[in-house]
Amino acid sequence: MRIATLIIYLAALLCAGCATTGTGTGEGSFMDRYSGSRQLTQAETMLKGGDTHGAMHVLDGICNGPAVAGVTDEALFRLALLTLKAKPGSAQAQHLLKRLKKEYPGSQWTALAAPVSEQVNALEEQRRQNKALKGSNQALSREITELNQRLEQLKNLDQELEKKAR
């Protein structure tokens, strides 16, 4: 009986030690890892069921919770993709991708996010160029309108001069 009590006591002590010891390097505690893994599975199930909004909510909770390598990095990547799907070029998605790269540089999810991040940056650059071109186009349209008005005025003056010359 004493051996069973000792084993239970040691098991409880080991679990309590794991649950309360965080490394501070993004690895998280045993309980954080377990909880995060369960939430990731829940988000995947929601996505398979078509509940994108619910999955995004769960992934956001993981991203805002304790940092756990292998869990938080995957959640950041998946949330960034879902955010981009909902709103291409989203500033929030860009922030999530930057955070992933900064906090988990060696993660496989960071490697997968690199081309996505490049595409988002290219999209943002195209948007800036389009905005500049629209501004130039508007300025040229105004200038054309002014030139057409001046041309009409010159035609009217020319017609008046012809009338006076007769």
Automatic annotation (TrEMBL):
State the organism of origin. Answer: Geomonas paludis
Give a yes or no for keyword Coiled coil in this entry: yes
Coiled-coil regions, chain positions: 123-164
Q: Where is the signal peptide?
A: 1-21
Q: Which domain of life is it from?
A: Bacteria
Q: Protein name, please?
A: Lipoprotein
**Among its keywords, does the record have Signal?**
yes
Name the keywords, alphabetized. Answer: Coiled coil, Lipoprotein, Signal
